[in-house]
Amino acid sequence: LEGRINTFELAFRMQAEAPKVTDIGGETKDTLDLYGIGDKLPTDNFGRQCLLARRFSEAGVRFVQISHSYKWDQHGELKKDHAKNAGEVDRPIAGLLTDLKQRGLLDETLVVWGGE
Question: What is the pTM of this model?
């Protein structure tokens, strides 16, 4: 019973912290620009995911997984479509790595970029 209570208490603490960790409203314009976050930017969606990954890491989350859309498995128009996909992820990934390094988190964070 005590183990179950501990589990529920942990779940509550995590849920109580989630709104604060996921609220990027307090981030500076420079940080949002670093990740490519902004209206009508092709990097906005993935940039938000990368920024949240940094925020989760700062909050002590031990494993974070983010995914770019499932558009990489292509069988035609490779040059055009892969260039578009790369354009959506290059800036946010560079922003994440830069931000982690500036905050001293890169020394203790393993970042894995994979494909199929």
Answer: 0.86
